[in-house]
Specification:
The protein is mainly α. It is built from 5 helices and no strands. Helix 1 packs across helix 5.
């Protein structure tokens, strides 16, 4: 079994909260809205706010502890590898990204 499948199996939690009772379409629209905001507005402060909102919803839904490992697997490598490439003139000349920001 791959690491991704085992992480997904560990994060499945059956609890009865407001977030779990929401329709799947509402959760999907939140996902699309959050993703578009983060990609359209290339701002680290907005990214931190969106991560904070997502973590707050996870804590409210009482599933923060099971997904902490998944968040660490996704966010920590991003911070370690992507941020120095984007912040320093290592991967992009004149410190500009591919989208021209």
């Amino acid at each position: 079994m791959s690491a991704g499948v085992s992480l997904l199996k560990r994060t499945a939690v059956e609890v009865d909260t407001f977030v779990q009772r929401l329709d799947g379409r509402v959760k999907f629209l939140f996902f699309v809205w959050a993703t578009l905001l983060v990609y359209i507005f290339y701002d680290p402060v907005l990214n931190l706010i969106m991560i904070g909102v997502a973590l707050t919803l996870a804590a409210y839904a009482r599933v923060l502890k099971p997904i902490a490992l998944t968040l660490a697997v996704i966010i920590v490598p991003w911070i370690l590898f992507a941020v120095p490439i984007l912040a320093l003139p290592l991967g992009f000349p004149w410190n500009k990204t591919v989208i021209g920001y």
